[in-house]
Amino acid sequence: MEVYALERKLGQGSMGSVHLARRRSDGHLVALKAVAVCSVKEREQAANEVQILRSLRHGNIVRLLDSFVHLDEVVLAM
Fold it and tell me: What pTM was computed for the model?
């Protein structure tokens, strides 16, 4: 998480939350989607989502910039 500075919370759902964050290296604004992963099944689903998002390149689909695990959450930088 030290790569990003959280600005503010954008929203929250049953599976996690989304924050506006600034990448410290260049000041680029990103959305950080944090999804709680407690079980093996949830970890597999999160890994599948990351794999699918990494493969997508389309003007109407939000691009995945980075992903990492922080505590018990998978965080997607978009």
Answer: 0.85
30 bridge partner residues: 21
In the chain, what is the straight-line distance between the N-terminal and C-terminal CA atoms, in Å?
14
Taking the C-alpha atoms of residue 78 and residue 74, their distance in angstroms, rounded to an integer, is 13
The pLDDT tens digits along the chain (78 residues) read 789 999 999 999 988 899 999 999 999 999 999 988 888 898 888 889 899 999 999 999 889 999 998 888 999 999
Please state, in angstroms and rounded to a whole number, the distance separating the CA atoms of residues 31 and 18. 6
Using alpha carbons, select from 23, 33, 19 the residue that is nearest to residue 2.
23
DSSP string, 40-66: HHHHHHHHHHHHHHHH---TTSPPP-E
